[in-house]
Amino acid sequence: MAGRGFMQWAANCRTVRLDVGVATSEIIVLGQTLCTDLSSITPESTVTFHTVVGHEGDITVSVKNESPEGMGKDGGVTKMVAYISVATHSSKIDDKEVNFLFVDKSGDTIGVATLRMTAFYMSLDVDCDRDGVVEKNNPNKGSWQWGPDGHGAILLVNNDCDDYLLEMDPEHKNSKIDGPFDLEDMSRMAVRVRGPETLPEDCRLRMWVRPDDKERLGIFNLSDIEKRRAGGVVLDELGNKHIIGPKAGYLAQVSYDLMMVRRDEGETLFAVEGLKYPDKDFNGTLRIHLSLLKNVTVPVFEDTVIFRMAPWIMTPNTLEPIEAFTCQMKKSENLDFINDFKKVVEAAGIKVNIVPPYENRGDRWMQDEIELGYSELPGKKPMPVVLDSPRDRGLQKFPKGKLLGPDFGYVTRYDQNEFVNSLDSFGNLEVSPPVKVDGRTYPMGRILLGSAFPTTKYGRRMMRVVRDFLYAQQVQPPVELFSDWLGVGHIDEFMTFVPAAGGKGFRLLLASPSACYNLLRKLKNDGHGDVLCFEGKTRSGESAERSISDLLDDSNLKAESLQCQNDIDWNRDVMKRELGLDEGDIIDLPQLFQLEDGKGAGAYFPDMVNMIVLGKQLGIPKPFGPMIDGACAFETNVRSLLEPLGLTCHFVNDWDSYHLLLGEVHCGSNTRRKPFDFKWWNMKF
Amino acid sequence: MAGRGFMQWAANCRTVRLDVGVATSEIIVLGQTLCTDLSSITPESTVTFHTVVGHEGDITVSVKNESPEGMGKDGGVTKMVAYISVATHSSKIDDKEVNFLFVDKSGDTIGVATLRMTAFYMSLDVDCDRDGVVEKNNPNKGSWQWGPDGHGAILLVNNDCDDYLLEMDPEHKNSKIDGPFDLEDMSRMAVRVRGPETLPEDCRLRMWVRPDDKERLGIFNLSDIEKRRAGGVVLDELGNKHIIGPKAGYLAQVSYDLMMVRRDEGETLFAVEGLKYPDKDFNGTLRIHLSLLKNVTVPVFEDTVIFRMAPWIMTPNTLEPIEAFTCQMKKSENLDFINDFKKVVEAAGIKVNIVPPYENRGDRWMQDEIELGYSELPGKKPMPVVLDSPRDRGLQKFPKGKLLGPDFGYVTRYDQNEFVNSLDSFGNLEVSPPVKVDGRTYPMGRILLGSAFPTTKYGRRMMRVVRDFLYAQQVQPPVELFSDWLGVGHIDEFMTFVPAAGGKGFRLLLASPSACYNLLRKLKNDGHGDVLCFEGKTRSGESAERSISDLLDDSNLKAESLQCQNDIDWNRDVMKRELGLDEGDIIDLPQLFQLEDGKGAGAYFPDMVNMIVLGKQLGIPKPFGPMIDGACAFETNVRSLLEPLGLTCHFVNDWDSYHLLLGEVHCGSNTRRKPFDFKWWNMKF
To answer: Protein-arginine deiminase C-terminal domain: from which residue to which, for each copy (chains A, B) (predicted)?
Structure first.
């Protein structure tokens, strides 16, 4: 919709009223122009007038005759208007005076109107060069521009918890500075004022934000806190708190009156913390205003800075892993899996976190509860931030309880008016590597999430508030895929990305029934029709073993699998278009699907695309395919497709512990990755 | 925020799977390309292959080798992909066939993969040239562009009531076609399809909208209604109703399956009605999709049209009046006023509507209950639409009861969670004439509304939902003024616009205490200090008479008035900047203000800017100023300022009937004006 345009509440050209025989006192801020209608006060017998500028100073006075465009002096509508300004570089703040002398035809001065000005220098300053320095009156401070040539200050959502011994909530839930590390997460802002010893009585110097923004940021007066601390008070005992923001007082505060002014240029330093990510009703930009007010409420001058809230960013499989997560179930139920999993992590040379039963409470689906991303301020280390799914099963307390902490943020979205469904799990939320589409670049890729078709009335979709949140981050514009055809309904059941030498630097891997039937047919043609697949495996207490020929002859399985191929192909076409891929960027991995009774489709054997990708080390669900020449033919096929790309395939046994429960390796694990080298504010739109 | 990008749910390039020895049947829509991976099905001993296009037809087949960028055939990643398309102009819809023949080194064909295509032509069409004609497959139909060179179809919010004898609600509250006049308010849309006699069994031809849009429009199948009517059923008995929209069934419907197909090009005609104006959560554009679905839900082809909802538009004082409204109070209480008022209306040569006591229920503030605007479709007469204020006093039932009707629409915004305050009255809502500001043109002016400063915590503002509505209309971007300093708090207490010869074609009139004191001083200097103002008038039972000298000596009144001058000057500066005005465009009318106890400011004598403007005829509150040389000196002053502009001043006595109740002529009246000649869709952003 049409953005609600920002409007300044004080003009740079301000109307003042003078009177003959009177000295009028007015405030003038350096850079501002005062404007006064002389014709309305000119004595009747005046034939000319003079302007006399009293005191020394950089005062400019110009007088113009103003009448409606294209009209002369007819109808008495021409006005004589004087414009008075004081140069912005003026170092003098002493009283400045202008006298308008009205002279009659005999040369006598028949009246004098005097304007006495109290001059101020005032500036609200931020770091809009994104170099860690709060500049002085940067002309760009009131606007925000994307790109490497752009400008504009940035705020971080301060949602880590530096005071983690005392609290289990992200810091934006409180309004104090939890020590120096907390301060590190905030941006600096300065008020610089030079003016008279005291403000005129009915004047205020007021910092303020729009009512809509008062829950989105919190501002601390660092200079004031420092002064009080210098007076011997311990920081935490100060009740140091927001001067503007949700916890500034009993109610959220929108404004704060500054005590001032010094005749030398005083600087008051502020720290600003972000409290909310961009969202449906918040485009991410925040304005902070500094107004000089007359009559307590009427602004006579205004300075404005703009911040943009750093978005939450997801990390694709092509970024280097830092640490991996998985769950250990009670009674060592998934010990085989964990042992295989550890080997993959070890090969990747990263840390592994095994979440014990008392923390996972029987919930093995580590992928589904959380998505690990980050947020970043210029010149600072990016802060990892976990997005907590509305799913909330056994792992519900894990993200806040174990991840949230110093320099590890937490965010969630949940709408209690909607039912949670399986598509809300974050196995259904991925992000592509960087791509270029029709000349538009997505340097941090595009978010991918699974949905129902909008054409269907009763389809499952990810919770609206989560989708709104993802779209609002802007820097990884989402692509909605079709995943509702699957029983569980997660996009990681049919797709993943792997890093790869050459090409675009990655490949899209898709589960493919067609590829599987091609492979099975070839094996049969080569004389292996009787070889058993899934040897020694059971399903619902019965043997899962089937020969290649038997699989090929199962017309139900084939019909169901090829219908799934159809659904996957639909997603293939969407991704080709929305991510700018062609067939050369896509690799089909053999896979069969079956329809679970009334529940949609599921993998018929361990779903190989549902892998964990740790750099070049892949942890792939072990398919238990036909053993030919001493090797699983499915594994051989996958190796032949992926190893030429410089990848190493580790096959992880998840048959009993995950596959039969309708998930696989990816579903049961999670990965924290290095942030992009690319800085999000350098993105171009 | 980042717009949620529109995403097609079906690609123009669609993946299909072929197999050797198999004839695969697929649907192809003219204009679409099918894409198939031949390498995955190529028999091992193949050395070459041929493409044979069976039947006659405009079929194009091209085969490409696709490998990741910059990579050769290493790693077996090169794919041979065939692209098949049928020319869009193809007139034949017979089955089309392509055979891929795989040949071994001895020249023998060792396998054939056959693709049999059922070709369709399908198109969803609207009037995107804005000329009243539904074009055929206009390439612009999927986008919307502002401006005289722009394009894009338009919907009207169908909020009049053509069935007014039966209902008292705007039509969008029902879902039927209330006769031919109702149909006139709707836009046309056509589905054109040429294809096989019947759709393949699992296929659907489905029209659909996003779930968000299902309450914003309603679609009727006119062809179907016509067919049934031809079968002898009376229109109103058909239960003719939305096929998509809020009242399509028990629940709002998002989709509709079309019965089709004819071998000749069949056309099905639809009527689309708008139901909601653009608003905070609705940018005004609506997309309607037509999808060809496979497996009942999976789109294989998609066509999309876009509509924009015609905004609600306000009419400034510079537009010609059509009719005027005022209230007659019980016991002829305001008969003097009405007689004076009628004279102004008579001079303007327009109709006057005197709302009798049983309809106004003691509420004389006709300006405050409603704002009269309009909406417009290309090629049709603009439809007047009343915006009903959330104020709701005695006149509450007037807009629905007396204005809503055939070709007179009704809209309101109200939030029961907010308290109504005096700033919600539409004396606080005006619109400027067309203006140009720093090179940006506002050909329909800018909406003006009064607010509190955002710096104040407890200030009054217009109800959020009303402001959101006004901003969302886009074509008259609002400017918020400061009116909370006034007790009643309406911007019409200190400003109005009048048409005027020369210049920008209008002048801004501002109430001015300074101008009033200048005038009073001049009168005193000329020896009229003892002349009485407000002669014979009373206030709270006491005489209101005061001499010029007495007024000049009242230092309280002067201090209060000059503080008000300050507040008005602040608004003057905002309007100069936001409307691109200079002093030559502004005329100060003499006025004094006083502070009502604890309630803010109010006019001290009848507030002359609070006038009704009917073309060049002005109905100005009679100020009862000092009689000098047989004429009121205030009137003389105002005449001297306005009559040179070609305006006629009528002074209307509203002292007892409005002024003492804190309102004036403008507050007590309303005006319906001619729409702009300028068409809103020609606006440029």
So the answer is: 300-682
List the single range of A151-165, A547-561, B357-371, B508-522 with lowest mean pLDDT: A151-165
Instruction: Burial-class residue B649 by CB neighbours within 10 Å (0-12, 13-18, 19+).
Output: middle
The CA angle A543-A547-A553, to the nearest 5 degrees, is 110
**Helix/strand/coil for A568:** helix
- Which of A342-356, A542-556, B3-17, B475-489 is the least confident region? B3-17
Region of residue B665 (left: phi > 0; alpha: psi -120 to 50; beta: else): alpha
Which pLDDT belongs to residue A225? 84
User: To 5 degrees, how large is the angle CA B621–CA B624–CA B630?
Assistant: 120
Confidence of residue A55 (pLDDT cuts 50, 70, 90): low
Nearest Cβ partner for A81 among B66, B480, B583: B583
List helix spans (H) across A186-293: 222-230
The answer to whether the CB of A439 falls within 8 A of the CB of A431 is no
| Cβ count within 10 A of residue B264 | 8
Mean pLDDT check: name the lowest of A152-156, A519-523, B453-457, B500-504. Answer: B453-457
Which of B568, B570, B577, B683 to substitute to test the interface with A, most A CBs within 10 Å?
B570
Contact A645 B75 (CB under 8 A): yes
Chain mean position to CA A435: 19
What pTM value is reported for the model? 0.92
* Terminal alpha carbon distance of chain B: 18
What pLDDT shows up at residue B69? 66
- A9 falls in which pLDDT band (50, 70, 90)? low
Which residues of B carry out catalysis? 368, 490, 492, 667
| Interface test mutation site (partner A, options B14, B15, B685, max chain A beta carbons within 10 A) | B15
Question: What is the 8-class DSSP label of residue A527?
Answer: I
Q: Which residue is it, tokens 């295509």? A: B117
CATH 2.60.40.1700 domain locations along chain A = 122-309
- The segment(s) of chain B belonging to CATH 3.75.10.10 are 313-682
Rg of chain A (C-alpha set): 34
Distance (Å, rounded) from C-alpha B401 to C-alpha B412?
14
Q: Which of B79, B473, B502 sits opposite A584 (nearest CB)?
A: B79
Residue B218 reports pLDDT greater than 90:
yes
- Report how far residue B602's alpha carbon sits from residue B511's, in angstroms, rounded to the nearest whole number: 12
The whole-angstrom separation of Cα B127 and Cα B603 is 52
Assign B578 to helix, strand or coil. Answer: helix
Contact B365, B654 (CB under 8 A): no
φ/ψ of residue A270, rounded to 5? -125, 155
Neighbours of B112 (CB within 10 A): 17
Hey, which residues 387-446 in chain B have their CB within 8 Å of chain A?
none
The tokens describing A44, both together, are: 């009747």
Q: Is B552 helix (H, G, I), strand (E, B) or coil?
A: helix
List every span in chain B annotated with CATH 2.60.40.1860: 2-120
**Yes or no: is domain A122-309 CATH 3.50.50.60?**
no
- In eight-state DSSP terms, residue B531 is P
Write the pLDDT tens digit of every residue in B101-129.
Answer: 999 999 999 999 999 988 888 899 999 99
pLDDT range class, residue B161, cuts 50, 70, 90: confident
What lies within 8 Å, CB to CB, of B536 at 6+ separation is B545
Chain B residue at shortest CA distance from A70 = B503
Superfamily of structural domain A2-120: Protein-arginine deiminase, N-terminal domain (2.60.40.1860)
Q: Which of A86-90, A442-446, A467-471 is predicted least confidently?
A: A86-90
- pLDDT tens-place string over residues A314-324: 999 999 999 99
